[in-house]
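Anyone? Bumping this.
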Amino acid sequence: MLLKNTYNEFVKILSKPRSYLGVGALTLLIGIIIFAMKVDGKSIISFLTSSFEQTLTFNGHVLNGNLIAFIILQMLIVHVPLLVALVTGDLISGEAAMGTIRMLATKPISRTQIVLSKFIAGALYTLFLTFWLGILALGVSRMIFGTGDLIVLNSDGLVILQDADILWRYGAGFAVAYLSLLTVSSLSICLSAFAENSIGPIVATMAIIILFTIIGTLDVTVFDSVKPFLFTTHMAAWRSFFEDPVSFDNIRESIVILLAHNVVFVALSVFAFNRKDITS
Amino acid sequence: MRILFILILLFPLSKLHAQAANVLLNKVVAKMMSVKDYSANADVTADIPMIKILPSKAKIYFKQKDKFKVEAKGIVILPKQGFTDVNSFISNSKNYQAILGDTTVVNSAKSVLTTVIPNGESSEIILAKLWIDYTRNVVMKTQITTKSNGTVTTTYTYGDKVSYGLPSKMVFEIDVKKFKLPKSVAADINNTDNKSKKDTRKKGTITVSLSNYSVNQGLSDALFVK
């Protein structure tokens, strides 16, 4: 019954035009970035290597598909949560707003299973979006710009990763990025369980992400004890796969915290939906 | 009066010294000029603070007077100066004044220090110190100070192409004091615990091992067009 309901929920997601908005927006954004890189990609390389250029020269195929994919991921990781929340934030509250929630509750399925099926459907949509992001960012970029070593600029300096050592990092990076987006999806569904309209949970999700990101960025000691527990701090954990050596301890910690958030959000949603008054 | 007398005595001596330096440099330049072009395989190992890169391979091409090209499958980091600029600088004796200094041993070869000072202010090079093996007429070590790049020290090792003055290995020691990261990157929010691990060295080295030289094969100019 859970699987059947999950299928129904996924069909509902697919039937909403806004679900394609995310896919369309991603395609357009990545298309624009790839076009910009094709036209003026050298300025990006100059940004990466500017502080070293007086003394050193970087030779070889620097502007390649791997670098473009990394730039796209860095740019879009801020925006993709909005595209996820746009769909998943509506999953429960949308039913309440349209009045279909009562009919849904009359089905021979428990409320807990209804919530879980919505979570699974949301997770599948998020997976599709991440997969699409991967195909466009990595697949198309590598097709257009070719492959090559990857230059990554981080706070320690430049890390240059060899071409043969990159694909597994992207694979693992996308998996962790998916977990981050899944947390956003869970948060928005959780907020959706408390709301009666569609727009509220979507806006609230983005507001929380912005607030947590600002707290995480502020260099104020009072927030130091809180920062490690904010899910936004760990949303960029995918980037750790592009360090040398890879800090697996930090990644593991991020995965645990993101998973914990997911569990809490699902539990809260189940609790709220089971107590939700759907008669009025 | 006595000082004036000493100065009068010293002036021709210093001129003689400068002439000797020029003769030595001319021999080095003549050897360099015997190479019209070359290509070689390069194995590059960089140990530079703030840059992590594995050893890489490249093919380098050179054609007189200053055409230089690096072909690599991956990314190869090379110093901005050291391959062609010293050659071009010392190839025209009108550009500089040269003075001979002490004799020391560099890479097991007796070498004489030749200090080269540019005549005009327009030159990028402020001061060049060259340790020249006067028996083989090859440069064993250079220390070049430029306006914008700081000081780069290069040590040369020679193999079977010593007759052309082409090294089998070059070790560049570069100044990294000027390396600064963009603030937006330096303030990486995810990087909270590695301040103590930061590399604070002020010097970095790039080792270039050269092999499979092809000398005077008549490289086309088109090869160097970007």
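Late reply, but here is one note on the structure posted above: The first strand of chain A starts at residue 56 and ends at 59.
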